[in-house]
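Hi support team,

I've been running sequence recovery on a batch of backbones for a student project. Most finish fine, but this one hangs at about 90% for roughly twenty minutes before it completes. I'm not sure whether the input is malformed or the queue is just slow. I've pasted the structure tokens below so you can try to reproduce it. Let me know if you need the job ID as well.

Thanks,
M.K.
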């Protein structure tokens, strides 16, 4: 098994439940800047919806990149959120890489010193939470090791944000998908497994994703499922 990268290790060392999601997102972004060859980072959630929110940006340039993308509704962040795949642009002047977002690319060239962009979707299974955006002021891609670390960190960050928003008082590690003594969540997970024909991990991810996108606690969603007020088989998720 490959050794965990510096950013992933830094994220897993963050204590759970000690801060709100904006503060958590700020720490995630700071860890990326500290551990990768990038100059700035930002996290947006619910990126392709009307409820879109920038949780954190490390500097004014990172914040401006987020605003430009949502103003033009195009850019690496929007593409990553829509496709669910990383978008890597080692040279912003490459017209092939930026052909799908001419307005955004032109604005970035005119208003910033950004020359490379890397957008990594924050997702878990079928649940897409948002995007981790990274930028650099010099041309060039991430090394193979750094790219692996960034993608692993994005996966860890997605779970951390899911846990923070849907079950902030929960105990256990960030990557612990067990739900301990919460009988309602256990029961709801089993019901969603039957409704969707998925395994326990995916069923719990669906519960967490629904809670995240609707601004609810995980236990509240579980109670709705157990009480037959929410049936996942009837939802297009």
């Amino acid at each position: 098994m490959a050794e965990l990268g510096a950013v992933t290790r830094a994220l897993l060392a963050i204590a759970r439940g000690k801060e709100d999601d904006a503060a958590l997102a700020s720490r995630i972004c700071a860890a990326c800047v500290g551990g990768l060859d990038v100059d700035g980072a930002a996290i947006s959630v619910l990126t392709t919806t009307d409820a879109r929110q920038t949780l954190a940006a490390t500097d004014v340039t990172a914040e401006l990149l987020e605003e430009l993308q949502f103003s033009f509704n195009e850019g690496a962040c929007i593409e990553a959120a829509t496709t669910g795949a990383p978008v890597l642009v080692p040279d912003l002047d490459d017209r092939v890489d930026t052909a799908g977002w001419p307005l955004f690319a032109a604005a970035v060239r005119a208003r910033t010193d950004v020359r490379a962009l890397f957008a990594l979707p924050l997702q878990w299974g079928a649940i897409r939470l948002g995007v981790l955006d990274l930028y650099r002021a010099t041309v060039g891609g991430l090394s193979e090791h750094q790219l692996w670390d960034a993608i692993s960190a994005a996966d860890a960050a997605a779970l951390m944000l899911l846990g923070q928003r849907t079950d902030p008082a929960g105990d256990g590690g960030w990557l612990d998908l067990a739900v301990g003594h919460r009988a309602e969540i256990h029961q709801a997970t089993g019901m969603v497994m039957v409704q969707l024909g998925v395994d326990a991990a995916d069923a719990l991810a669906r519960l967490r994703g629904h809670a995240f996108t609707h601004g609810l606690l995980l236990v509240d969603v579980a109670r709705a499922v157990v009480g037959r007020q929410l049936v996942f088989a009837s939802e297009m998720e």
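--
Follow-up from support: It reproduced on our side and the slowdown came from queue contention, not your input. Residues 171-181 have pLDDT under 50 and may be disordered. No action needed from you.
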